[in-house]
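Following the same procedure, the fold was encoded as tokens, giving this record:
***
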Amino acid sequence: MTGTNQEPVHGRARGYQSLLRRFSDSTTTSAFLRFASIGFLSTVTHGVVLNVLVLGVGIHPTLANVGAFLTAFGVSYLGHYYFSFRSNNTHVETASKYFIAALVGLSINTLIFAVIVNWMNLHYMIAFAAAIVILPPIMFLISKKFVFTTEGDRRALAEAKIDVRSMGLTYGVPIFFFLFTAIYVALFHFKAPFFDQWSFVFLYGDIKEGADGFERMFELHGAHWHATAYAILYGLTELTGMNHFYEGMVSVAFAGLGFIGLAKIIIRGTAGENLGSTRPLLLALAAAMWFSLDQAINFLWTWQVAIFVNTAGAVWSIYFLTGASLNTLRFVGALMATTASILSFATGLTLLPLGALLLALQLRNGDGRNAGLLKLFIAVWLIFSIAVVVAYWRLNFAADGAYGSDIVAAPDAGSVLPIYALFFVKFIASPIAKFTTDLAMPVFFLGGFLFVWAIRRSDINVRAFRIRPTTLALLAIMAYGVGAAILTGLGRAVEFGASQGASSRYISFGNFFWIGLMMMVLMATAKAGRLSAKFPMSTPLVIIIVLLILKTGNTVSIGKKFAEQEGMRIEALDALLEARPGVDREALLVYASPHQSLDDDLDFLERRNLSFFRHREEAEK
């Protein structure tokens, strides 16, 4: 493909690069090593005093940590002044600055202990271990750039100031949305297995009780294939005793990983054509969509880590396959991302034909130098795709009693086409107007109008069938959302009806369509010079504003709903715990469906001290 993915280095970045060079020079490296040795001595002092105060004196760990931290302050200050940084500044100036830095460190340290000991009810030494990993790099930067600064450091910081401000403008909003979502999940994540998550309890129980269970990761929950998610949940259960807080944080982490891939696509697409000024807007809008809390059930119902592994894999596969220069490493990365996506949620099968098309376009649009390698990649991709489809078909459709056999044998397929069509419309519209499904059809047609408008004003050469990398990536993102709607409809529409298309569970997939579409519209508007106008109003922009207003209503409505429901679930959980072994069926139904029989699963959880039974025992202590 033609075009470039490299962003030119502007003058404003020189200060930042200079700062990085200074940080990596030999003087700084030796200072860090000296800092680490003093930090080790200070940490030992901190740990000894902490244990003496807790075990010897009987002071609460959080309060004892304050005394231990202040004791270590004297050791660290003198060591850093005379040894780490060999400062020539006066003690009056330096000690006062270091005391401020120590207060910042104390605040972070106390917060770590409060969260891990008081809130998460874990052992105080876990909090201590977390503190000694998190604090040293933070304290080194504060000490070097604020406390023990030299004239050269001050000049480098002044040069880098404008670049840091630019980075904050570009990445500040996405970081805010990520942190806001993480806090929401930490506060409201479901505290016990919920609906389909009981199937994992069954699987984990079989494995721990000695039965052969690992192969059933591909069989549980039918043709959806959540094997990747089950493997992650299994590992987390081994580490945390099925603490659902950590499961929720893993979902947030995979969502963040997926957004990084999306951000790289946007950054690559705005590197040229004077689109750099639109980058903060595009990243902010993409983050608002990607982390929107109308996906609340996916974040809070931690079994849905499957969705975020799937979406992260899809984005990274598209990123690798739409680069200007596709090499072996990127191709292998695309294969791995696609595999993770498919094994986590079967909508990832969309990537098989999509990937083949992207590779074919790479070959079509290339300059011929890598034609042989691209043909090899296409051949490998086709073999990989055929192998995956054959395995999927044999496991889920060909076998007797397989999950998909009823779908294949469904009579009079023509009679269900209207159901499929309505399911598709609701699926695509729900990320914008799930809270009011009456608007599903208008929203769908507004999306269609924007798509036609964006295609007509894009840089696609229809006659030569050439598409530039940026446009190709955004079209691929939209195509994944459409493919997810089609595959989900084939598996769910007949069994559950067209209304199932508006399920909150599918918003994470439907978001793909709207993110790619809005990025295309805004880039086309920016290229025409209209986005920089004082009042950049046009029909497409007005439509996007209306859609974003609806999206905000979606996010607030659904996010509030599931936060409130989790409060009710906590009450039901307390009732369930009080009722054991005579389980309160009404309380249990808040976490399960009427057809599920969970007595054996509850016995297993209690016997193994897992999930909410673990929390109960810790609370009783």
